[in-house]
User: Fold this.
Amino acid sequence: MTMTLLAILAATLLAGVGSVWLAALLGFGILARYTQHMLSLAAGALLATAFMHLLPEAFESQVSAHELFPTLLVGLIFFFLLDKAELWHHGHEHHHGHDHSHDHAGSHAPARPGGSWAILTGDSVHCFGDGVLIASAFVADMRLGVVAALAVLMHEVPHHMGDLAVLRQASDNRRMALVKVSLAGGLTALGGVVGFFLVAQLEAYLPYFLAIASSSFLYVALADLIPQLQKKLSARETLAQIVWLAVGMGMVTLVSGLAHSH
Assistant:
């Protein structure tokens, strides 16, 4: 029993926090120069995480669509209100500094700070749910647990690259973005421990976790990222956006498919 718990802890930390650091290495290192492209990739990754991974898993459960769709709707409204509260708070703090921000908003509009709380809340719920999933796999079979942890690690990398891109847009502080997403990733371990002791009781709630997490990713992608990508661009820039959007979707879909094939 202790061995299983230690294995769950190691696997959830690797999957939850390891995936964030791997995403940071890729996003901040190799792709750091392509900030605009990273936003397209983020939108693609978030939409695909919600539609190709989380929602299908939620709907494969015993919970009916009549319960999951309202959860998704309530989640979207909740993240909208969270974003409103964040923007309102930010607006009061920086009211004087941004008076002239629209004067030179031609080529690149000022980064708006929205989405970071929605991303972090959704991430935390998602990572906690991942931890419960990994724990239930380990309780069933050690090898299955390892496969589940690797699958989570893999599909979290493109998704966390998206999260880091959103947070970097909200503030230019790389280290803070990394710390915040790492803390959310750390909740995978909490989910793992809670899941180990309460796996039977929590399993019933997993579909709801998945629906709430997907509502946050859908909200951020559609309300925050896509509007920023809808600026008037040349045909070449538009094509680049579509390509990076597709890359984000492709990465998540590919690794979700691999995870499900095991």
Summary: The radius of gyration is 19 Å.
